Amino acid sequence: MNIVNMQTKSHLKIPEKIAFQRLELAPILNLYGRMVAAGEWRDYGISCLREVAVFSVFKRTAENSLFRIEKRPKLRNKQGMYAVIGSEGQMLKRGHDLKSVLGVIERKLIRTVD
Fold first, then answer.
1. pLDDT in tens, 88-108
2. Cα angle 53, 56, 60; round to 5
3. Domain range list for the chain
4. How far is 54 from 32, CA to CA, in rounded Å?
5. How many whole angstroms separate alpha carbon 25 and alpha carbon 68?
């Protein structure tokens, strides 16, 4: 293998961990702040794993998560890399646009405020 091929392959390296970028965290944290203000959420956790980044929200710290917001880049060209998963593990929404996927949780906030 010549040097040119080795250099090209090093640029195609898959990151060791998937993480949310700043532009992705902004709408998630905006929603989180509004849900905290409404008294619905109290804590969150972020996990950066090999194939998925997860933002989990909790009513109380010691409980299971109410929702998980996931980013799976491998599904980018299929169903979409963003998903909202409920407390029972049910897929609530999946898509290519994070803001539209978060809409499923936004509807809960609207019901809470009414």
1. 889 999 999 999 999 998 876
2. 160
3. 15-108
4. 14
5. 13
